[in-house]
Amino acid sequence: MIIGYGQFEPALGRREETLLRLEGLLATAGDLDLLVLPELCNSGYHFSSAEMAWETSEEIGRSAFVDFLVETCRQRNMFIASGFNERDKGVLYNSAILVGPGGAIGTYRKLHLFMNEKDFFQPGNLGLPVFETDLGTIGLLVCFDWVFPEAWRVLALKGAEVICHPSNLVLVGLAQQAVPVHALTNRVFIVTCNRIGREGDLHFTGNSLIAGPDGKVIRRASTEGAEIGTATVDPELARNKLITPRNHIFRDRRPEAYDGLAGRPAAATKA
Ligand code: ACM
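Structure tokens for the assembled complex are given below, as produced in the milestone run.
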């Protein structure tokens, strides 16, 4: 299976321009089974107002952006996971959508909103789904979810072999450090697709990456360039949860000792 990231700069509030840029990027792509695109790819990130966030959002069933992804997947017989400014029943979600040759497959809505995203988006209300596809089992997370190990763990426990991670990272190097560790401790493949460029005072940090179940970075992008990076991977490796011949990362867990994990510890409720 060939997985990859499509690192580029979506154009804030200019979807037609973003689609042109994406077309140009895809024209440079070789064979691919699964491509991951950045967070909020249909809209851009740094909204100047709630009106801008609203006007740049789309409903999944009526989206020029999703139609473009579906057509691309149909023509190239591939899958794409992309960040998506999603409008649903009068509110917005910072979502990731998975699309394949047969159309839209499923959606994840970002659970852990970063900074000013809290002014525009509702936290996700779809939990942490995984999607069975011809390629294998795919999970989705979005950007700042990287800091919550629980999210990666739940997806892995649900059988995700590849976790697609559309991102608009601004904290220099932190996610790029953490993601390979999440890949290692859950023994999954992770594709983090970050964006590049600036919007206002935000500078997005590029350095998209593909990490393997051994925690190694298989492919890493530059900090500034628009580029597709790919790796040929064997999803079977993500099904083997033995980290030593006598240590299975799921069977050796001790959930009976993790009783604080599912609730909110007192310290967290005070803030
Ligand atoms: C982020 O979650 N976009 C940093």
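The CA atoms of residues 6 and 228 lie 5 Å apart. The mean pLDDT is 96. Further analysis is deferred to the final report.
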